[in-house]
């Protein structure tokens, strides 16, 4: 790779890496930006200021037409760090839509809709007393393996009657607070009981396993959705209070955008408010066909979906929650 592509790679990484603390994410971003810089050099784009929406769209088209037949999820993953470094919203890039059909990690099923018998070691470990605490927490917390590995006693946060678990370095290196459903709060407190403030909740031996933790995260997402959907059906008046809670979360998490680009902040805020209105969230395309094949609901409560997305899965996307967690 020539000096120009190295220079572009360096400048893009300089813009994006300071905000990332997670080593795995950092390594992935370096690899994807290196590949982009090599492509950019070959197409005459040598300076950071030349990386526009149109250029990233050209790169997306290149990936989409690659003979290796990249999946929609892979294309999203490859262009995400480039967009972040260039200050371009992913929403401005036309790309194949990720659907439930293309997502199989830990969730493959046979023609009858039953999980395929695989990862037998992980299935045995899931039922072993040695991993009982870890499985119990993951079933009601639903975070990633590396996040479980780094939990310490001080990460249990009690705020009045509410209970949270702090993930100090979540996806992208961001701190996040996972809300614990009231019915699960006592179980979480018992698991953290006796753990010192800076003591790891789980030993390396406990976290070193083949258990399908992502499958437990998916089940957790469904459980949380059912909890909120039933709550809102019993008490529709609670909707406005819950929307206000989510909007406060959104405002706090987007203060930087508000200061740097008020127009984009206002647009995204309005869209967020719209995403949790009273319209049902209706499945379409592959997601609809998969739901029909599995006998799953074809539409969902938007507000319940958003509560799961923000409070439990730590992102802001209804489609991600539906595709990755509910239609499985």
**Which shape, going by the Cα principal axes?**
globular
Distance between the termini: 42 Å
Tally of contiguous helical segments: 16
* Average of per-residue pLDDT values: 86
Q: Give the tally of β-strands.
A: 5
Poorly predicted sequence stretches spanning 5 or more consecutive residues: 107-117
Describe this structure in words.
This protein is mainly α and 328 residues long. Helices cover 56% and strands 6% of the residues. The protein contains 16 helices and 5 strands. Strands 1-2-3 form a 3-stranded antiparallel sheet, covered by helices on one side. A two-stranded antiparallel sheet has the order 4-5. Helix 2 crosses helix 4, helix 10 packs across helix 15 and helix 10 packs across helix 16. It is globular and about 60 Å long. 28% of the residues are buried.
Write the layout of secondary structure elements.
Elements: H1 3-16, H2 23-42, H3 53-64, H4 72-86, H5 120-126, H6 132-141, H7 145-149, E1 156-159, E2 162-167, E3 176-179, H8 185-192, H9 204-207, H10 213-234, H11 238-253, H12 255-260, H13 262-275, E4 280-282, H14 285-294, E5 299-301, H15 302-312, H16 318-326
Antiparallel strand pairs: 1-2, 2-3, 4-5
Helix pairs in contact: 1-2, 1-4, 2-4, 3-4, 6-10, 10-15, 10-16, 11-15, 15-16
């Amino acid at each position: 790779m020539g000096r120009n592509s190295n220079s572009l790679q360096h400048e893009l990484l300089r813009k994006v890496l300071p905000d990332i603390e997670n080593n795995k994410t950092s390594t992935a971003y370096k690899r994807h930006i290196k590949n982009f810089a090599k492509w950019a050099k070959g197409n005459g784009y040598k300076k950071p200021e030349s990386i526009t929406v149109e250029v990233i769209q050209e790169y997306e088209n290149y990936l989409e037409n690659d003979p290796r037949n990249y999946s929609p999820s892979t294309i999203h993953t490859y262009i995400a760090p480039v967009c972040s470094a260039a200050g371009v919203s992913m929403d401005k890039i036309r790309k194949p839509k990720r659907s439930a059909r293309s997502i199989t990690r830990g969730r493959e099923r046979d023609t009858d809709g039953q999980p395929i018998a695989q990862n037998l070691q992980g299935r045995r470990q899931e039922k072993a007393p040695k991993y009982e605490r870890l499985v119990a927490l993951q079933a009601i917390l639903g975070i990633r393996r590396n996040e479980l590995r780094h939990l310490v006693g001080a990460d249990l946060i009690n705020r009045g009657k509410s209970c949270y678990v702090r993930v100090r370095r979540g996806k992208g290196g961001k701190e996040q607070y996972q809300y614990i459903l009231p019915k699960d709060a006592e179980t979480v407190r018992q698991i953290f009981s006796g753990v010192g403030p800076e003591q790891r909740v789980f030993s390396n031996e406990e976290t070193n396993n083949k258990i399908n933790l992502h499958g437990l995260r998916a089940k957790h997402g469904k459980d949380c959705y059912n909890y909120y959907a039933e709550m809102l059906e019993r008490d529709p008046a609670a909707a406005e209070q819950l929307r206000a809670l989510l909007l406060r979360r959104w405002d706090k998490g987007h203060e930087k955008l508000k200061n740097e680009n008020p127009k984009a902040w206002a647009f995204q805020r309005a869209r967020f408010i719209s995403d949790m209105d009273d319209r049902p969230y209706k499945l379409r395309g592959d997601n609809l066909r998969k739901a029909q094949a599995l006998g799953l609901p074809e539409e969902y409560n938007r507000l319940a979906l958003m509560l799961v997305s923000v409070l439990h899965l730590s992102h802001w996307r209804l489609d991600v929650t539906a595709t990755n967690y509910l239609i499985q």
